[in-house]
Amino acid sequence: MSLMVLGTSSHVGKSTLVAGICRVLKNRGITNAPFKSQNMSLNSWVTADGAEIGIAQAVQAHAAGVEPSADMNPVLLKPKGESVCQIVLLGRPYQDVQIPDYYCETDSLLQEAVAAYRRLEGAYGEIIVEGAGGAAEVNLYDRDIANIQLARALRLPILLVADIERGGVFAQVYGTISLLPEDIRPLVAGIIVNKFRGDPALFAGGIRILEELTAVPVLGVLPFAETGIPSEDSLSIADKMTSGNPIRIAVVRLPRIANFTDFELLERCAAVVYVRPGESLDGYDCIIIPGTKNTLEDLAVLRSSGAADEICRRRKDGVPVIGICGGFQMLGDHLIDAGFESGEPVEVEGLGLLRTITTFSSYQKTTRQVRCRSGDVGPILSRIGDVEGYEIHMGETDIGDSLPAFDETGAVSGDGLVFGTYLHGLFMLPPVVDALLSFLSERRGLEYTGVTPAGDPYDRLASILEEHLDMDRITRICIPGHHA
Description:
Layout: E1 3-7, H1 14-27, E2 32-35, E3 38-40, E4 44-46, E5 52-54, H2 55-64, E6 75-81, E7 84-89, E8 92-98, H3 99-102, H4 106-124, E9 126-130, H5 148-154, E10 158-163, H6 169-179, E11 188-196, H7 204-214, E12 218-223, E13 248-252, E14 257-258, H8 264-269, E15 271-275, E16 286-289, E17 291-292, H9 295-305, H10 307-316, E18 321-324, H11 326-331, E19 334-338, E20 345-349, E21 357-360, E22 366-373, H12 378-381, E23 386-393, E24 396-398, E25 411-412, E26 418-421, H13 430-444, H14 457-468, H15 471-478
Parallel strand pairs: 1-9, 1-10, 2-9, 3-6, 10-11, 11-12, 13-15, 13-16, 16-18, 18-26, 19-21
Antiparallel strand pairs: 4-5, 6-7, 7-8, 14-17, 19-20, 21-24, 22-23, 25-26
Pathway: Cofactor biosynthesis; adenosylcobalamin biosynthesis
Pfam family, one: CbiA
Active site: 325 (nucleophile), 424
C-alpha cells in the first residue's frame, strides 16, 4: 500500500519524519524507499550515476538502506532569483522557467513523477512519500503535483504532520483537514504532532481535542530533537544556534546560498556563524564562501556590500579563506560567462585570491561523485588525506600553474591558507573538520580533541519514533495486514 506524509505547512518536519519511518521499516525487515515528486531546494545531492536530487531524498534513501536514485525526486526546482527557477527533471537540467510559466509544465511533470513512483514501487515495494509545503494550499489544488494531484493519482493513506513549536497546532490540523478536497480528506489516516518541547504527556488533553475535532487518530507527539540529519532547505538557517566554542568560523550567507549542509558537522565542533554580506568579518578565525545557485550575482553582492574587500583584508591578516563550488569560482581572478550563468555574455573580476579563471560555456552541469586526496600543501590540506564528496556546478575552472587543492579538483595558494574546491560534503568528513580545527586551535594556543563520533543518526531517529509514535499502527497503515 505504501504511505504519504503531508504537512500543515513548510518546515513542520516531514523530511525528518519520512527518514525516520524509512529506518524503522528497515529495522523491522521491510524493504522500502523514499519518494518526493517535487522538491524546491538549493541543497542537493549527486547519485552514483550523476543524477541531481534533493538532499532530503538522499538522506531518506540512506535511512532506508538503499541507493539514492533520480526516481526518488523526479522534479527538483532550484530558484535562481528574479522569479526564475531551474527545473531538474529525473536528475538532469531540463529548463529555466519563470515561476508563473512553471505551472504550464505541471501536467506533464506529474506524469513523469507518477511513472517514477511506479518504478520505485516495482523495485522496493513499500514507498514512503513526502509532500511539499502545506497540504491545504487551496489556490494551488489544480496544479499541486507534490500534494493534492499526487494524492489523487496514488490514493495512498496520509499521515498529517503539524509543528506545535510555532503555535496554533489546533488551527493547523483542523484547518488543513477541513480544507482538503472531499475526495482526499478520507485518506488522512493519522495525525502526528511534532517539535513538542517539554513532556509530551502534558499534551494528552490536546490529543483528545484534536481527535474530537477531526475524527482522525493522533498517532503520537514527537519531542523537539537535534537528529544530526542534514537540513533540507534555507528555512533551516534561521534555526541554527551558534555554540560558545572559542574557534569562530564565518560562513558568508550569500543571497542564493546552496548546499549549506556542507557545514553541519563543522557547526557541532566550532562556533559557525552565517554572516550576511556587509556584516563585519573581524574576530573570525576562518572565512568560508559557500556554494551558490548564481555565482555572478552573488559575487556582485559581495562587491556592492563591501564584503569582497573585507574578505581580501582578512586574508592579508592571515585568516584562512576557503571557497566551496561557487565560492571557489569567486576566489579566482576572472569569471567569463557566455550567457549561461547570468543570461548575457559578461566577464567579471573575481576576488583575486587564487590564480584561476572560470568559464561558463554550457547550460549542462558537472554532477559526479568524487574520491580523491588532498594536496600536501600548507598547514590545513596537508593534514587531510583521502576524501570523498560530490560536485554540482556549471562552469569549468582553469587553475593555470596554481597548485591543486585535491588531485581531482580545486586550487590552493602557495602558503596553503586560501583554497577552493568543487567538492560538496567536504566539511561533513571528520578528518577535514579535524584538519581545519586542529590548525586553528594551535594558532590560538587552544587544545583540540577531535571530532567525537556521533553514532548512526538514523538509528537515533528511529528510536525516537519507536518511543513516541504508534509505529505498529503506522506500519499497518503502510502495509495492511502486517503484524508488527
